Amino acid sequence: MGFRATVLTLYPEMFPGHLSYSLAGKAMERGQWSLDSIQIRDFATDKHRTVDDTPAGGGAGMVLKPDVLARAIDSTCENDARPRLLMSPRGKPLTQERVRELAAGQGVIIVCGRFEGVDQRVIDARELEEISIGDYVLSGGEPAALVVLDTIVRILPGVMGNDLSGLHESFEGGLLEHPHYTRPQEWEGREIPAILTSGNHGAIEKWRHEQAVTLTKERRPDLLKD
């Protein structure tokens, strides 16, 4: 059985989105992974299918109701050990290490928040792991969920044509990736670095590592500290 993803959302039509194309789309066609989207609103019980209410204590915006969301989660989770993620700007930053852990499992359940947030009680009661894809705020969790799934699917076994492609990318070794070049040899007066056409693979690997370290120092020194 392939990797199985379930997304809980108020906008199921947003899925699979870009994941139906390219490597991810072909992998889905081959059965290497699957995606189900569940409409949270289907679990509301009133005639207006209400999923949100005003925040306790006052304040702007609306909050996703715990009872409705819990029913949606429970519909997917009977005897289901897949991690339950909540896309949230206050969550732990997504890392390549966490992506590898998720990709090694059977699948994932992702809850897409909306409005001002999700009632804390359902986060606690259903043990949702809050994850952030960056220090900014989106209109909803759907774009973030697509990002998370993209990071996971591309490293599933057999999805990339050459599994070695993922070994030298940014963050895989704690560094940003080295610069890339391809033909033509000269373009607008700029030459491919001579070392890359030398045929000396040991020297090439050394150069690439040095370039990766330099770029990381310049752009993401926090990675070197970590």
UniProtKB/TrEMBL annotation:
GO terms for cellular component: cytosol. One of its GO terms (molecular function) is tRNA (guanine(37)-N1)-methyltransferase activity. CDD domains: TrmD-like (cd18080). Its EC number is 2.1.1.228. GO terms for biological process: tRNA N1-guanine methylation. Keywords: Cytoplasm, Methyltransferase, S-adenosyl-L-methionine, Transferase, tRNA processing. S-adenosyl-L-methionine binds at G113, I133, G134, D135, Y136, V137, L138. It is found in: Cytoplasm. The keyword Mitochondrion does not apply. Belongs to the RNA methyltransferase TrmD family. PANTHER family: TRNA (GUANINE-N(1)-)-METHYLTRANSFERASE (PTHR46417:SF1). Specifically methylates guanosine-37 in various tRNAs. This is tRNA (guanine-N(1)-)-methyltransferase. The lineage of its organism: Bacteria, Pseudomonadati, Pseudomonadota, Alphaproteobacteria, Hyphomicrobiales. The gene is trmD.
